[in-house]
């Protein structure tokens, strides 16, 4: 099939990239035609961690560092699902201001409200579009709340977990199994007390779960001052070399396929739809949950 948009996206035409991203985000009929012809291999870097850890500031510094080396970077900023998030979005814009003006940098934010059920599936597809465009690196920033940090691990080639040296925080972070998903651990705000102690604690944990090919490095940063950024960039590059040779690829593809199948199967299922249908059934009287479910799938 001839799709006129494809060569434009491949060339890096921002208008066409933006349009294609909207198509996949809104599940436009053209989206699948495009996606079936895309097979980019740009490395995807996921950055996660609790709100306020300094992820956006870190992305800003890291991307400026790469852009200075004339690398082209795409950033996908995933907002938390809250509809009342204008404040923090504005904050992110301020922190990322220099990036918005940089011709080597493309930024797109995704609101979880916009995706038609299945944020992960939308992001996976949007990332495929970005991988097809001529970027050297793709960064996804997500807030690590609940399950979301686990989800980022399913779509990023390299997952960076950002934490800060505050008592209590560390226990919380480690409890949520975040160490399991980190390829690179960042202790940001290392200007604060306790940073070195926290980092050495994390290093011990990383050492315990190290494999033959990779031991998760712990990088101390001060994102505001761009301190530690070259070390972080180097760790990411190293991980990507290691990553090419291991079994992660099939694991990642399986995770992605699972998320997309899940989204597609749940397409016409939402609590609201179910409530509406059930209300009608209840009004008829003599409701049986399992007869209703059977008639639904019939
Ligand atoms: N002291 C200190 N503050 C920082 C550092 N990095 C970021 N911040 C501040 O932490 C706050 C949250 O940063 P932000 O990047 O929005 O965090 P995010 O929610 O994880 O994206 C902002 O006020 C930043 O200026 C750092 O290295 N040291
Ligand atoms: Mg942020």
Give a short summary of the structure.
The protein has 298 residues and is of the alpha/beta class.
Ions, cofactors and other bound molecules: guanosine-5'-diphosphate, magnesium ion
Give the oligomeric state.
Answer: single chain
Largest sheet: 7 strands, parallel
Distance between the termini: 35 Å
Q: Within the CATH hierarchy, at the fold level, what is the topology?
A: Rossmann fold
Structural class: alpha/beta
Give the DSSP E fraction (strand runs of 2 or more residues).
5-15%
The tally of helices reads 15
> Care to count the β-strands?
7
Backbone shape? globular
| CATH homologous superfamily title | P-loop containing nucleotide triphosphate hydrolases
- What percentage of residues falls in helices of 4 or more residues? 40-55%
Helix and strand pattern: HHHEHEHHEHEHEHHEHEHHHH
Q: How many discrete structural domains?
A: 1
- Low-pLDDT segments: 81-88
| CATH architecture grouping | 3-Layer(aba) Sandwich
Mean pLDDT comes to: 85
- C-alpha-based Rg, rounded: 21 Å
Strand adjacency order, main sheet: 3-2-4-1-5-6-7
Structure explained in plain terms:
This protein has helices spanning 5-11, 14-25, 29-35, 55-68, 86-95, 97-100, 119-132, 148-153, 169-175, 178-181, 195-208, 229-243, 248-265, 271-284, 289-297; strands at residues 44-48, 73-79, 105-111, 137-141, 158-163, 184-187, 218-220. It is of the alpha/beta class. The protein has one domain: P-loop containing nucleotide triphosphate hydrolases (Rossmann fold). Residues 81-88 have low confidence and may be disordered. Strand 6 (184-187), helix 11 and strand 7 (218-220) form a beta-alpha-beta unit. The chain is globular and about 65 Å long. It has a seven-stranded parallel sheet with strand order 3-2-4-1-5-6-7, sandwiched between helices. Helix 2 (14-25) runs antiparallel to helix 7, helix 4 crosses helix 12 (229-243) and helix 7 (119-132) crosses helix 13. The structure holds guanosine-5'-diphosphate and magnesium ion (MG). Guanosine-5'-diphosphate (GDP) binds at residues 49, 51-57, 91, 95, 188-189, 191, 222-224.
